[in-house]
Amino acid sequence: MFLAAHRALLWLLLLGFAMPVLATHQVGGQIEMRAIGDTPGHFRIIVTNYLEDNNRAAQTTGGDIGIFRRRDNQRMMVFSVRETDQRQKVVFTNEACATSQNQRMIVATFGADIQLNPLDYNDAAGYYMSFQTQNRNAGINNITNPLQTGFTFYLEFPALVKDGQYYNNSSPRFNSINGEYLCINEPFTFPFGGVDPDGDELRYSMITPLNKNGGNSRTSEVSSGPYPDIQWLPGFAPNSSIPGNPTLQVDSRSGQLSVTPSQLGLFVFAVKVEEYRNGIKIGEVRRDFQFLVIDCPPVTAPNPPVWATGQLPATDFTICKGKSLELQTSLNPDWNYQWRRDGINLADATGTKLTVNEPGTYSVFVSLKTQCGKASGSQNVRVNVIDLSSSINPAGQLCATDGSVTLSVPGGVNMKYDWFKDEKPVTVPATDNTLTITQPGQYRVTLTQTQFGCTYTTPTVSLTRAPVVQADIRSAQTRICPGASLPLEGLGGVSFAWQRDGQPVATVSDPIFSVQTAGTYVVEVTAENGCKAVSKPFAVEQIPPVTVTMEAIPSVCGTEGPVYSLTGTPAGGTFAGPGVSGNQYDSKAAGIGNHVLTYSINFAPECPAAVAQQTAVVAPIPTVLFPEEIITSPGTSLTISPQLTGDPVRFAWSPPTYLADATEANARVENIGDDIVYTLNVENATGCKAEGTLVITVYERIWVPGAFTPNADGQNDVWELKNVEAFPDVEVTVFNRWGEVIYWSKDGYTHPFDGTMKGEAVPAGAYAYAIRYKPDSKLLRGTLMILR
């Protein structure tokens, strides 16, 4: 009696103290990112939000989501999500218990379709999106100041382009969540995992839930991460968000939650779901939720039995699609009932009977109406639905005069097939799920599952014959020119098989066949529907070749050459080219150059003319140009570079005295010792010749005048050194009477001394000079008089 009274008092305390503080609405949820599959970068974003069913939840209709780059939190875009589905209530096993605990919840779904440019989302570190809301449940017992704590839905996704290729990916998907209570000191498990549509590996771990930037402020600004964690009360952490033995844990592979709670209260928790592909993490999503731990009275409701109306006792039943099965359990006016399919509570399934027509594993949970305690579950009953729905799959084609089609439907054990043509039975074995036909008509089949008597009649398939395939060969002509090919074009199909003189040409399957050999050709064409036809024969003739010749034309020097008569075989052709008139060639009219002359014979209208050709050369007459004279000094080496025209290729210098090579175009004179006259004879490739002569004078010394008169009268105004040009390396220096240099010319006397120093005229009088002919020669010294 004492224990029962204690439990009743504790129950009243829970009711009395819990209800006033559970007036807010945020419970949990997650973001999903689903590839639509039509265009790269086209996604459907879904926010699943679990809310307390109250007025504040009714005001929640969506919000803004921001996408950010993980590397630097750069904002990429902001978009809005709006409610996309009708709100569904979260079904509790004991609805009366949910009402008494003020824990009635709904699930709201917000969504939007977005188009991302993959080229803008190629950062290797990936991206994240967030949806931030406010007001967690004020009755939460494991975090500080829950009413002023916000909520951040968070999802990470990889770059959309990797190694130059589009990287296709969707985030994990999650089923609906049951409304459940945890009984203190009772083991509890809960399916919290999901599936990945791309087959990626999912890894689960407990993590601290996220607050929003600004806490519970009402700002609607979309902000980037990092986002703050909620603040745990002392003694709580991600792996001890619900105290117990053991505490709340998640299976790292399946995502199943398990706990044996040891403390009463409302506890929030979060699970991180990481997505791995080929061992590399590519994404992440966080799921938040909360559980209420209560002190459950002793279980007094027995495990209820489940049976099928009108059926023998069993745990596995099979029905035909379109039929239904009634499941029922024991009637007890003191019990609440809640039916489940595949572990999920069914809405409005709270009676003793349940009519089912979908496959799944069904069970019913009962709890006492007078107490909010642990529910008892029935045995699982498996319902299988035989769905024979299918359509006839035709393969093949009825052509104009032949062809066949194989009709097929899915096969199976214990199956019978009744085929019909134009509503009349077709005699085939009853176990054949295929039928090969050669005649047009209306075909259908009735499928029967003999064990359970399920039947289904497929839609009718109408089969007709295809039109006649018209095969043909098209070509611009019927004869092949010498050394050429003739394109033949096959018409009437999508694939082609060619024959020459009755033999297949295995290497040619294209519509265009370029033939090089005379013969009779046909093509078998196959239409897109598989029907075939063969063309009429197409005869191709070979035009015999013609040999054309043309006599050579002599080369001439200059444009004053004779006029030549042109000759070609066979007769009757046409001559053409520069300087050609009829059968005459005039080099003067052609001009300087290498001219191609042709002789053409038009031997067949389909073919290009047969052509012979010769090159007529009108070569330029060479010219040789030298300076009038070269002046130098004894022992000098120099190169003579004449100006040449007419493309000479042979060179002969005479005499060869002082020359390194008398056959070079640019003669190298070495260590000249005396005056000499050179003659250069040149000849081009055509044999045209020319000659030039050069005089070289050798001076042994420079003649130095003793005075000059720089008075600007145009006579003797500079100190002129005779023969100085023979000494290109001469160095000339002039000094005043104090030994100062007033003029200096090195490497040639190119600017003669004009009696000035730095632009100012020097006084008349005597000046010393020093001349060095070559760097290694002795100085020539003397006195120079400047007269004014």
3D structure, described in words:
By secondary structure, the protein is mostly beta strands. The protein folds into 7 domains: 26-294, no CATH class; 306-386, Immunoglobulins (Immunoglobulin-like); 393-463, Immunoglobulin-like (Sandwich), CATH 2.60.40.10; 472-542, Immunoglobulins (Immunoglobulin-like), CATH 2.60.40.10; 549-619; 623-698, Sandwich (Immunoglobulin-like), CATH 2.60.40; 702-787, Immunoglobulin-like (Sandwich), CATH 2.60.40. 4% of the residues lie in helices and 45% in strands. The chain has 4 helices and 69 strands. The strands form 18 sheets. Strands 1, 2, 3, 4, 5, 6, 7, 8, 12, 15, 18 and 19 form a 12-stranded mixed beta sheet that branches. Strands 21, 23, 24, 26, 27 and 28 form a 6-stranded mixed beta sheet that branches. A hairpin with a 2-residue loop joins strand 40 (495-500) and strand 41. It starts with a helix and ends with a strand. Residues 1-24 have low confidence and may be disordered.
